[in-house]
Amino acid sequence: MSEALRTFGHRLFVAERSAWPLAIARVVIGVAILLWTLTMMLDLRALLGDDALVGVEFADDLDRFLPLDSTLTVGVALLALITAGIAIIVGWRPSLWLVVAFVLLVAIQRRNTMILNSGDIILRNLTLLLALTPTGAAMSVDRIRRHGRAAFWTSAQVAPWGLRVVQLQMIVVYFFAFWSKSGELWQNGTAVSTAFRLQDLQRFGEWSVLVDDIWVVAFLTWSTLVVELALGTLLWVRRLRPALIVFGVLLHVMIDTFVLVGFFGIAMVAGLATFLDADRLDTLVARRRADRAPDVEPITQPAH
Amino acid sequence: MDDAPETDRSDDDHSAAVADGSSPAVGEDWQTRMLRRRFGRFLVGVGVAVSSFWIVAPNMPSSAVRDRLDTLWEPAVGIGLVQDWAVFSPNPRSQSIDVRARLDYADGTIDFWDVPDFGPGVGAFRQYRWNKWQERVRLDERNEHWAPTAEWIARQNVRDGEQPERVTLIRRWIDHEPLTADGPSVNLGWNEFEFFVWERDA
Known about the structure:
The complex is a heterodimer. Chain A is 65% helix and 1% strand.
C-alpha cells in the first residue's frame, strides 16, 4: 500500500515530463498581463491617478507592496508590467518576471479595489503559481540562450510539482463556482436568462434567443453547471481531459462573448492549458520538426 | 542560473544535442533540481502542502470551524493569493444597475454624467472596471465614497470655467423577473432614486 502510494506520489509530483503545457500557459498568461496593463493604461488618470475617481485614501488596507499613490508612480509600475508581460511571453527569465508581474498586479489592484472582478484575482493567482513552475523550459528565449536557436521548439524534462498546484487552483475555481450556484434559478434552469438580461454586464446587448427561449435557456443553464462540475472533479482523469478542456474553452468563449467579465476567460484558458497532455504535445512537436528537417532524426520523449 | 550538464558531454555537445532533439535536457530548472537533494524535497513538500491548503481551505462554507481556521490563510490573503469564486451565485442578481449623476449649473442648465461607454470590442476590457465600480459605489455601505465621487464628477465637468453648483448621484435599476414558460421576459424599465446630493461651496 505504502509502495503504491509512493509510486503515485512520485508520478504526481516528481516524474519528469516535457514542459509544453507550462510554456503554452506562460504565453497565454503573458498575453493576458499585457492586455490587462495596456487597457489599464488607457484609464490611468481616471482610475489610478492623482485625481482619480477613487482616491488613494480608499486604497486597500492590506500590504500594497509598493506605494503607488500618484499618476507617475502608477504609470511607471504599468510600464514595468508591460515589460514583464513581454518577457513572460517570450520566455526571458519567466519565473523572475512572473514574480515581478504578481507584485505589480497586487500593488496596482490594491490601489483601487472598487474596479476589480474575479478575472483580476485569478489572473494574479495564476501569475504567482506559474512562477513556481519551469515555464521557460520550452518555447523560450532562455532555451535559445542556453542551447541555440534550434532549441526553441524543444522542451526540457521537468518535475511537475508546481504544475500540480496550478492545476489544483483551476479545479478549485470550477468546483466552487459550481458549488456556490445553489439558488432556485440555477435549479429551475432559468439563471442564464437573468444573467444575460443584466444590462450592465452585457457586451453586445440582449439576444432574445438567449433570454426568452425556455429550451435554449435551460440547456445553457444546466450545461454550465454540468461543465463546471466536470471541470472541478474530472480534469484529473487523463482520458476525459481533452474533451473537458474543449468544453471549458467553449464555456469561457461563450461567457466572454456575451458578458463583461474582463480577463477571467483568458486567464482561465491559460490555466486549462496546464492540463494539456505533455507527452502528446512532445510527440507532435517532434514530428513537425522532423517533417521540416528530414535530416534530423526525431526522438520520442519517455512517457511518464 | 547556469547549470552543470547532466551527462559527461561538453556544454557545446550537450546544447547541440538538445537543439537537434536528440537529448531532452533533463532538469535544467531550479524546480526540478530541488528534488535531487533531501532538503530540496523537504522544501518542495512543505511548499506544495501549504499552498494547496491556502488554495482549498478558504473556499470552505461559512461555519464556526471556518471562523476558527481563517487566521491560517491570512498570510495568503496578505500576499494577494485570494480565493472567492462565487460568481452569479447563489443566483444571478435580479437587477440591472447603473449610476448616473445630474449636474445643475449656475445658469439653470442641467446635464447628466454616465459611466463612459467604450464599445464591445477591446473596450469591453475597460468597461468591466467602470461597471464594477458603479456596482459597488451605489451601495449604502460605501457611502464614504459618495462625496469624493460627486466632487470628482464636478471637477470633470467644468463649463465656462465653473463647476456645476450641484451634483446629484442617482441609483438606477431595472427589476428582472425570472423567465417563465408563459412567454418572453418583460423589460420593466429603469427605476431611479437620488441617493446623494453635493453642493458647491458658495
